[in-house]
Structure to design on (361 residues):
DNA sequence: AATACGGGGAG
DNA sequence: CTCCCAGTATT
């Protein structure tokens, strides 16, 4: 029912400081804004990072929360938020901490580049002070268009519209758009944003998406935007937006070795983008057609260790990998670490738990 | 425009 | 099982 707004030719996606031209806007903007903000003022969630005056929140707390909440549901982010703020109450404390301590606080939360970038950015902020604009925030590592809009609207009262999964779904349904492009969503969000209360508006749209305009079974009966919603009128609101096509998840066999005990073990620091910076049991992916025991010999040769008996097998699903880990014992005269002191991925936590329960399987 | 990047909740 | 989550960096 609604045609996509034309995108300005040279405008970079995501950075839409300028609203793309919108043809005849289909809603009465003041009434729609008033309806959603009234709903938000009545039923908005009381979350720990929402303390402080509207539009003048503590930038450090807002920032940490927004990084933690990237691709992470609020209930889970809240646990890590409390843990992280206790460990690093100020940006100075975060900047002064070693990376291992930061990753330990992030342990199990996933997407560990968030923690590495946040730590690096904190060192810039401790030196230069907090950015005073959307563009300043955007320049920090780990801060993209979403986070820059969130922090600048919530802490600086800057009129910037966030574009996250909630906003995408709410606007796709409101307009009846099945395949909203990022630029389309940003344009609509910019138009809708209440410039008088940008922070509250952003939180209101996200709250609506999280609690009412949910992916599978939206509760249109209680939605303050129902009078204007094309998807609700269609009778099948859950059909908007259409599901994203996802690449199949490959199966990746891996061999790992436990040298020592599940409590005191030889650990390696992972490098690269996958689990980079975390510690873990020495491990190697199997080559094509290789059997686990041959990979174990290769791994042990690298470590100068002697291969031992199998301890078990486990599977671990990540977003884009399904790992089958074959765990063996090994012997070597190498320094061990107390595993509870190290920052480990869930995969390594599972492997150590498996080794501690050798009767299973 | 596609892909890599964790882990878990909800249906 | 599938789909999604207060996204970002890299290609």
């Amino acid at each position: 029912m609604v045609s996509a707004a034309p995108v300005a030719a040279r405008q970079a996606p995501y950075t839409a400081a300028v609203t793309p031209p919108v043809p005849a806007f289909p809603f009465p903007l003041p009434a729609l804004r008033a309806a959603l903000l009234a709903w938000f003022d009545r039923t908005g969630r009381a979350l720990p990072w929402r303390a402080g005056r509207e539009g003048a929140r503590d930038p450090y707390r807002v920032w940490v929360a927004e990084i933690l909440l990237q691709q992470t549901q609020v209930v889970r982010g809240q646990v890590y938020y409390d843990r992280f703020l206790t460990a690093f109450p100020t940006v100075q404390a975060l900047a002064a901490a070693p990376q291992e301590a930061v990753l330990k606080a992030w342990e199990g939360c996933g997407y560990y580049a968030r923690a590495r970038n946040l730590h690096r950015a904190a060192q810039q902020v401790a030196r230069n002070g907090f950015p005073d604009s959307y563009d300043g925030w955007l320049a920090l590592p780990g801060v993209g268009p979403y986070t820059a809009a969130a922090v600048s609207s919530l802490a600086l009262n800057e009129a910037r519209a966030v574009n996250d999964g909630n906003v995408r779904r709410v606007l796709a349904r409101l307009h009846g758009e099945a395949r909203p492009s990022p630029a389309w969503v940003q344009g609509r969000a910019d138009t809708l944003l209440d410039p008088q209360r940008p922070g509250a508006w952003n939180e209101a749209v996200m709250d609506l998406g999280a609690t009412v305009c949910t992916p599978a079974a939206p509760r249109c009966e209680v939605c303050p935007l129902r009078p204007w919603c094309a998807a609700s009128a269609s009778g099948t609101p859950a059909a908007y937006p259409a599901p994203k096509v996802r690449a199949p998840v490959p199966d990746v066999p891996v061999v790992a070795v436990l040298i020592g005990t599940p409590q005191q073990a030889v650990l390696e620091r992972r490098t690269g983008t996958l689990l980079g910076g975390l510690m873990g049991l020495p491990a190697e992916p199997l080559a094509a057609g290789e059997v686990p025991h041959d990979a174990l010999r290769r791994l042990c040769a690298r470590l100068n260790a002697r291969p031992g008996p199998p301890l078990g097998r486990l599977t671990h699903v990540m977003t884009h990998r399904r790992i089958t880990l074959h765990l063996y014992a090994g012997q070597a005269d190498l320094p061990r670490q107390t595993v509870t002191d190290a920052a480990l991925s869930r995969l390594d936590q599972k492997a150590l738990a498996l080794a501690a329960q050798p009767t299973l399987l």
Observations:
- Confidence is low (pLDDT under 50) at residues 1-24 of chain A.
- Residues 29-239 of chain A form a domain with the Endonuclease III; domain 1 fold (CATH 1.10.340.30).
